[in-house]
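Forum > Structural Biology > Help requests

Title: Can anyone predict the 3D structure of Alpha/beta hydrolase?

Hi all, first post here. I have the sequence for Alpha/beta hydrolase but no way to get a structure on my laptop. I'd be grateful if someone could post the structure tokens.
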Amino acid sequence: MLNKPIVSQLLLKILKRKRTPAWFETALGNQELVEPFNYLAQQAYQHGATFNLASAFQCLLIGESPLPRALSTSLAARTLFLWGESDFSHECTCKDSSLKMIPHASQLRIAEAGHFPELEAPDRVLDRLIDFVLDHDLVEAG
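Reply #1:
Sure, ran it for you. Structure tokens for Alpha/beta hydrolase below:
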């Protein structure tokens, strides 16, 4: 249903309060975080926040890569892709497809984190980011 323009945006506008906890259950690696994340999301909704999952999903369907090929191959900046392996909302996503966009990039996968590794495993992410910034080899894949 997420791939149906307009209809899915309207449905999520109506159902966002009910769908949000279910999405967190799928996306978070640590189920103890579902309720605190949901609580914050519900508070944000009271202040006008939206749940743009359908729009984000539809943007991913429009082409092979969000980066033009010329930009992705000429990008000189060091790049790190961060993946939470316990994000079942991306269970079928090919994590290595990121490296096709920017071939010289590094990739870090954190087994115990889900969709938000920087929030779910902040110490682990910080350690790896420090290594990356200091130009140490990033060989860990899980």
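The two ends are 32 Å apart (CA to CA). Helices lie at 7-27, 34-46, 53-60, 69-74, 97-101, 117-120, 122-133.
Shout if anything looks off.
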